[in-house]
Amino acid sequence: MSAAARPLVEQPPDREPWPVMRGEHPAAALTDHLLAPLWRSSPTWWLLFGLSSLGTLLLLFTVTYTVARGIGVWGNNIPVAWAFAITNFVWWIGIGHAGTFISAFLILLNQRWRGSINRVAEAMTIFALVNAALFPLLHLGRPWFFYWLIPYPATMGVWPNFKSALPWDVAAVTTYFTVSLLFWFLGLVPDLASARDRAPSRLKRLVYGVFAMGWRGSGFQWQRYRVAYVLLAALATPLVISVHSVVSLDFSIAQLPGWHSTIFPPYFVVGAIYSGLAMVFVLLLPLRRAFGLYDIVTEAHLSAMAKLMLAMGLMLAYSYVVEIFMSWYSADFAEQYTYLTARPAGPYAIAYWIMTVLNVVTPQLFWVRRFRTSTRVLFLASIGILVGMWMERFIIIVTSLNRDFLTSSWHIYMPTWVDWGILAGSLGLFGFLFLLFVRFVPSVAISEVKELSIELGRDGAELAGAAGDA
Amino acid sequence: MTRGGRISIAVAVAGAVVLAIGFVLDAPRAAAAYLVAYGALLGVALGALALVMIARVTAANWFVALRRQAEQITATLPAFAVLFLPVLLTTRLLYVWTGDGSRLAPGLRDVVRAKAAYLNVPFFTVRAVIYFAVWIAVAEMLRRASLRQDRDPSPRLARRMYALSAGGLVAFALTTSFAAFDWFMSLSPGWYSTVYGVDYFAGAMVAALAALTVVVAIERRSNALPSEIGADHLHALAKLLLTFVLFWVYIGFSQLIVIWSAEIPAERVWYAVRMRAGWRVLGGVVLFGHFVLPFLALLVRAIKRSVAAMSVIGIGLLLVHYLDMYWIAMPDAPYHGGWGFVLDVAAVLFVGGAAVATWSMRRAGEPSLAVGDPRLAASLHYSTE
User: Fold this and answer.
1) What is the pTM of this model?
2) Domain containing A159 — which CATH number?
3) How far B60 CA sits from the closest chain A CA (Å)?
4) What is the rounded distance in angstroms from the CA atom of residue A18 to the CA atom of residue B163?
5) Where does A195-298 show beta strands of DSSP type E?
6) How large is the ipTM?
7) Is A265 an 8 Å CB contact of chain B?
8) Which of A30, A355, B25, B205 has its CA 20 to 30 A from that of B33?
9) Which residue in the set A4, A12, A266 is minimally distant from B375, CB to CB?
């Protein structure tokens, strides 16, 4: 946005009427307000932290049990060799997409409103990836041999099969994790320096100081920092597309009906961003309330993200329609059976219909502006979408495997208590990490918000309603 | 009528004459040449329609200054509806699923019979009518609202265009995909690919952005656009073009790797034909011209901001878009080499000439800027910095 831009005469009517920031905030007050959660905790925080710690303990227990006894304690067995673990993997890694989508995509598109929410989204990405990585490792059965997946010069001469999508997965996910972590950390540096400068105790000053890496906020540092940040954003953007595309190839390069479909790569990417946006809402809405961020995370943010969610939901629905049509059009009996009989009317029909209703019907609410800004509707719809997206991965994996070409090998899969325990435990770990994050790291990008606040003061009319600014 | 309009009518007539002679001499080959040219050029108009709607729902500021040019490209859609008649009249020559199946291999006969409820000429015709009705209705309503806004900048019209675009995109996605399934995918009636509709859309977006770049470059040269529209707008257009060049190769690669890895005979046959002999060479040319070259060129900032360089890239991409359509559709159409290439050129001249003539006729007298849009001032001062 150039300084030469004229302020607009009137607010364009196809723009949202809300500002991206409400009220006037002196920079120092903003810093104090946004750093406050770092210096004191609340009873609610301790309560939630206790609950999520219990969840983490459950995860530790079920994982230990799995490793000690072998993955026979899970419900999956041939032909349903993949079930809960891979469902959870795809679900978590999908959730991990919104962070980089919000940070990297939107910064490249000059969407200034991202500044208020990108930190939460990026942190969520990292924690979701930590969870996701757990499942393929456990699924190895002997997780201590995980390094066999890495093409290192082994004296045994054992190399990964590069024609399999699984080593691609390892490469894609580790790259994504590395870049996401770097991107998150780079964005944090100026805020960590603020925390260092305002730390109430020597120990805190020391710890934040170490992580702030000598940031002084000089013009020279900012100039270098900006270049690095945008470059990293440009690097991270293709990764958002590539990671879930590679995950989709785990399925689609097979010949199994329900897995083998050419639309899988873009369809998985869309579904991933969709569920990730839902998770951002689930985390952001309570945070907005707890930390009093109403002036910083406004209706403009909620509405813009709800619109993105609607767009993703529609693209997902498109994929469903095309898949179902094409299964009929293929005139292939196995394809038709999977899509037209086994899924909607087979043993897992309930999960199928939950998936369809939650994923396709729920986002239609967001055609209505009132629902796009209602925190209650957004929160419930997001939880619905998260459940729906989990069901989608379950349906894709289990219904395709449990009834394939050979009827004599049909098999009903049922999860065991360990399967459920690991799923619940991974949610616990996610909450645990996220709560630590909001307690010890600035959960809003303070420097970006301050910058936005100053620009708003300068030419407010121009940035008002920037939810659709390009 | 402008001089350009008169020239394009002459070109269209010349193409039509050659094509008509071709129909007499070798009707199937002429029909195939026509379908490919039609598919490639229709993509330009459809891509422009999607672009107008996407820019509207994302409230893109920079695009407002170029919106009229994009809308004028969509004004050719009614002409494309008329130009579809030759395809409709030659379905029996083009599509092996028509007729009693005697032209099909025995294995394929059963497959095609199983799809008869969808692949039959009456339903094919009805669907085509629906597609055109949707496209023309959305495009014309958007154009009318936009032109009315030139005189009456009331918020009502902007709201209307916003709602039309949001709903229109949903209708557009389904109709365009199914049109691609019907008109091009069904040339090989045993074959199917779920991403085919997205693939056609990706090519159409590249073509539309390329065409828009060329139009803006021409209007810049003839001073039909205000001086504020310059390097910055071209830069934004080029960045979007780069995005869709990447999107195109991503979708194409998705389809290839899924089919190549699984090696299901019914699916691999599509690539087996296209990766043999001359088709392989053409495929290489398309990959190079539609991805490698524009990708590398569009990374360079100076190129993105240069009118001359972007004109070259725009024209080049339009040509390669045609070759892409050729590679996609022609191997399954009644194709043979030799003098058939004359018909290919004639078909491009006919459809292209008719489309350009329509474009030139319908845009005459319209303001070249969306002067009533409240965001126009901001858009004219758009800067990529």
Assistant:
1) 0.94
2) 1.20.1630.10
3) 5
4) 19
5) none
6) 0.96
7) yes
8) B205
9) A12
